[in-house]
């Protein structure tokens, strides 16, 4: 049993969201503990477990990124541990990361020597732009790869998806770092 | 058949409602009054007064009278240190322990005080049903509402209060969601609703999607320490400087006058407060920071739901403080539409609770409430950092699990610290439970794999189980709430409450055990007879399994008439365990039926 089969869905990445929500509501009506209040304890327990599993499936598959993550895990293609995802700079991002780190260092220096906020904040905003552009590029690639997986079921596509996801996670962390810097 | 009710246990007022022929009705007293002030007073001769009478006693015996106790639910002594000075009653309790409220020479926990209020509502409902000529007018089951942003400790304290009052708490539901149920009754439409709930002591915002009768909460946010009480404190600060008489009774009289002025200013542009003229504009300038504090949570809830204010179809106002014109204007400005307030904002939550109670006992599937957990649940990891296991706004019921191992050879126990909140550091979050996982088989360090499973039920309350995966040994977990009552304490308080001291407790327990056994027997026999069972019997249920179920079933029937409660319970548990797999198989078979748009009963 996995989340896709639980909702009687094929292992595909493009979901008809209206249909997906409808399936979720139908199964919620089937399993929700509200309807098992008078039932025997074994049924109550089963209802609790099934509802919890359904809610987990809903949360995981509703979001396109966690949907890809989950599919990779199901297909035995999950990234090897979180360390790989966060520490190692993906090859496709080396240039941007290098430039950003230099920029961040200089901004910190400016701040410690008392530069006004709008000066260094403006700099950070500018530094963010190429990363944002990279993210948009990634989203487009993820969509394209997802469509290709749905059409072909080719495992090579999964490898490409895995690399994109790793880079995307890295980009997300970078952007969060800039955000923290801006708000500090 | 005994009755079920829905109860809004408020900071300032409480009330009770029930469903009659599909229509929720608030229960009123002879004067047509639905609200019971959430005030409890103990007189010199130890008589307990609740409601209006207790409120009157604030003016004559303030030190023996407790109000706004909801603010203390699920709290430790340290949590309320700053707040305690505003109250005439004694706030006591040992450091690190659940807070206690001293009235005269007696001390009560907040759930005990709340239980007095709940019992008053129970009696009010029973009197109402007796008047209607109902044969069995006992009220023994209830759905009780809490602020959506209440944490696990506050929810558990509320459930404990119900149990102490002699009520089986069918479900704890969130106030804004309850309100949406009451509003949704006559409107079978779909859309996105924002419920803005500013009560006496708490603020909630919930964003829901309504579709096919399913009320699905997308996000919730709030502040459990923000409400009309805070406005009263501001006004009090303003008038206290000119107040010579500082006895508790005089202060309470002043407080009631200040509250009256606040109410007046929702109707008029000016009024007098303690002899001085006060204009609405001045009042609004004074409370603006409080209203402003509600807007941040609203924006966060919108962001968590992934929605813009313009995507909200309807806004619903709940709670007495939403009568303040400034509050209405601010809400209208934020969401860009005029909010609904057709239903009485004081009564709508109790009506919704009654609707939910009715769904639970009738199994009516027309409406379904899918709520979320307001706060992320996590555990402490190395360096005092929280690792999140169930994220906020996850639909409940929800589960999460975490793997633990040992740090030294032959270690047999691991300490686990469970927290709730959004911050990264342990110190900034709410400590819920600390417990020791015991009974891990002695092995080299790092070898045991202990899976700890966290389950949040449909009331938003947590339970924990653990299992060592290498040896399949179920762990014993001693869960000690950081700020709460143990089951034993709740049981003792229930016994101490005068209503049950007289009842024959043992007899009641025996009857309950027999009822439970009978319902399990019936359910099992129904399953074995069903056409569904015939179709799975050969494929998924082994002959041994069937034989086992039948023999335990026969055993339970034999002991059913005995007077030994423990034996009955032991056999009931055995039958539950024996039928667990069967129940799961049957449940799985209903999946495809549900997706085909059919109810399993129709097949």
Secondary-structure map:
The complex is a heterodimer of chains A (184) and B (603).
Chain A: H1 3-6, H2 17-31, H3 41-62, H4 64-74, H5 81-86, H6 94-112, H7 117-152, H8 155-183
Helix pairs in contact in A: 2-3, 4-8, 6-7, 7-8
Chain B: E1 3-9, E2 13-20, E3 23-26, E4 36-37, E5 39-42, E6 48-50, H1 52-57, E7 65-67, E8 90-92, E9 100-103, E10 106-108, H2 110-131, E11 139-146, H3 152-164, E12 168-174, H4 175-184, E13 191-198, E14 203-211, E15 214-223, H5 228-240, H6 248-267, E16 270-273, E17 276-279, H7 280-305, E18 314-318, H8 325-335, H9 348-362, E19 368-370, E20 377-381, E21 385-390, E22 398-404, E23 414-420, E24 430-437, E25 450-456, E26 462-468, E27 473-474, E28 477-481, H10 487-496, H11 498-502, H12 505-529, H13 531-540, H14 543-559, H15 565-595
Would you write up a description of this structure?
- Chain A folds into two domains: 3-62, Orthogonal Bundle (Helix Hairpins), CATH 1.10.287; 81-183.
- Helices cover 77% and strands 0% of the residues of chain A.
- Chain A is built from eight helices and no strands.
- In chain A, helix 2 runs antiparallel to helix 3, helix 6 (94-112) runs antiparallel to helix 7 (117-152) and helix 7 runs antiparallel to helix 8 (155-183).
- Chain A is elongated, with a radius of gyration of 22 Å.
- The N and C termini of chain A lie far apart (46 Å).
- The model of chain A has no long low-confidence stretch (mean pLDDT 85).
- Chain B has 15 helices and 28 strands.
- Helices cover 39% and strands 25% of the residues of chain B.
- The relative contact order of chain B is 0.10.
- In chain B, helix 3 packs parallel to helix 10 (487-496), helix 12 (505-529) runs antiparallel to helix 14 (543-559) and helix 12 runs parallel beside helix 15.
- Chain B folds into four domains: 3-226 and 289-369, 2-Layer Sandwich (Nucleotidyltransferase, domain 5); 228-288, Actin, Chain A, domain 4, CATH 3.90.640.10; 377-484, Substrate Binding Domain Of DNAk, Chain A, domain 1, CATH 2.60.34.10; 504-602, Substrate Binding Domain Of Dnak, Chain:A, Domain 2.
- Chains A and B meet through helix 2 and helix 3 of A and helix 9, strand 19, helix 12 and helix 15 of B.
């Amino acid at each position: 049993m996995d989340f896709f089969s639980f909702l009687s869905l094929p292992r595909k990445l493009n979901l008809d969201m209206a249909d997906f929500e409808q399936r979720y509501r139908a199964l919620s009506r089937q399993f929700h503990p509200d309807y098992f209040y008078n039932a025997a304890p074994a049924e109550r327990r089963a209802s609790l477990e099934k509802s919890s599993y359904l809610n987990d499936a809903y949360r995981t598959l509703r979001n396109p990124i966690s949907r890809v993550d989950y599919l990779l895990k199901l297909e035995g293609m999950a990234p090897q541990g979180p360390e790989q995802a966060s520490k190692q700079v993906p090859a496709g991002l080396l240039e941007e990361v290098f430039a950003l780190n230099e920029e961040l260092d200089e901004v910190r220096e400016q701040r410690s020597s008392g530069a006004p906020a709008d000066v260094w904040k403006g700099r950070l905003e500018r530094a963010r732009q190429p990363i944002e552009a990279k993210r948009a590029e990634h989203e487009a690639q993820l969509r394209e790869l997802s469509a290709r997986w749905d059409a072909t079921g080719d495992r090579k596509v999964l490898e490409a998806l895995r690399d994109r996801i790793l880079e995307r996670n890295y980009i997300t962390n970078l952007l969060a770092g800039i955000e923290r810097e801006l708000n500090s | 058949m005994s009755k079920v009710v829905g109860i809004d246990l408020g900071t300032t007022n409480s009330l009770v409602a029930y469903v009659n022929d599909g229509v929720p009705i608030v229960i009123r007293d002879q004067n047509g009054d639905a609200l019971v002030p959430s005030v409890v007073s103990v007189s010199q001769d130890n008589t307990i007064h609740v409601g209006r009478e207790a409120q009157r006693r604030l003016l004559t015996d303030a030190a023996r009278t407790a109000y706004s106790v909801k603010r203390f639910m699920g709290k430790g002594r340290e949590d309320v240190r700053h707040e305690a000075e505003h109250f005439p009653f004694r706030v006591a309790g040992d450091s690190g322990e659940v807070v206690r409220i001293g009235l005269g020479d007696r001390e009560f926990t907040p759930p005990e005080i709340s239980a007095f209020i709940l019992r008053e509502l129970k009696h009010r409902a029973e009197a109402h049903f007796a008047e209607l000529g109902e044969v069995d007018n006992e009220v023994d089951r209830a759905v009780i509402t809490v602020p959506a942003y209440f944490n696990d400790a506050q929810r558990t304290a509320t459930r404990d209060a119900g149990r102490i009052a002699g009520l089986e708490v069918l479900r704890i539901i969130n106030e804004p969601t309850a309100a949406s149920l009451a509003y949704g009754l006559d409107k079978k439409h779909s859309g996105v609703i924002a419920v803005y709930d500013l009560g006496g002591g708490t603020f909630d915002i919930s964003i829901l999607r309504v579709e096919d009768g399913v009320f699905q909460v997308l996000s919730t946010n709030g502040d459990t320490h923000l409400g009309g009480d805070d406005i009263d404190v501001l006004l009090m600060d303003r008038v206290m400087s000119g107040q010579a008489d500082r006895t508790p009774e005089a202060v309470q009289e002043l407080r009631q006058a200040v509250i009256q002025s606040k109410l007046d200013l929702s109707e008029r542009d000016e009024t007098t407060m303690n002899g001085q003229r006060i204009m609405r504009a001045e009042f609004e300038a004074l409370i603006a920071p409080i209203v402003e504090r509600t807007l941040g949570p609203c924006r966060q809830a919108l962001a968590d739901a992934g929605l813009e204010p313009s995507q909200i179809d309807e806004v619903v106002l709940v709670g007495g403080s939403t009568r303040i014109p400034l509050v209405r204007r601010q809400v209208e400005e934020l969401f860009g539409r005029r909010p609904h307030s057709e239903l009485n904002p004081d009564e709508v939550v109790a009506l919704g609770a009654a609707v939910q109670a009715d769904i639970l006992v009738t199994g009516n599937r027309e409406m379904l409430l899918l709520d979320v957990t307001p706060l992320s649940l996590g555990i402490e990891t190395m360096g005092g950092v929280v690792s999140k296991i169930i994220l906020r706004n996850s639909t409940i019921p929800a589960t999460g699990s975490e793997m633990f191992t040992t740090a030294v050879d032959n270690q047999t126990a691991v300490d686990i610290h469970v927290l709730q909140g959004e911050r990264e550091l342990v110190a900034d979050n709410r400590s819920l439970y600390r417990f020791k996982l015991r009974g891990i088989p002695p092995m080299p360090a790092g070898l045991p794999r202990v899976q700890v499973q966290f389950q949040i039920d449909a009331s938003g309350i947590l339970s924990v189980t653990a299992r060592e995966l290498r040896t399949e040994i179920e762990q014993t977990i001693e869960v000690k709430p950081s700020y709460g009552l143990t089951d034993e304490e709740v049981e003792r308080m229930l016994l101490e409450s005068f209503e049950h001291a007289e009842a024959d407790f043992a007899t009641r327990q025996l009857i309950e055990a027999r009822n439970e056994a009978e319902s399990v027997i019936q359910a099992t026999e129904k399953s074995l007879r069903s056409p569904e069972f015939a179709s799975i019997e050969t494929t998924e249920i082994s002959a041994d399994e069937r034989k086992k179920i039948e023999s335990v079933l026969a055993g339970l029937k034999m002991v059913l008439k005995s007077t030994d409660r423990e034996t009955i319970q032991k056999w009931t548990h055995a039958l539950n365990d024996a039928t667990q797999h069967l129940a799961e198989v049957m449940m799985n078979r209903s999946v495809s039926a549900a997706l085909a748009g059919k109810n399993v009963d129709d097949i």
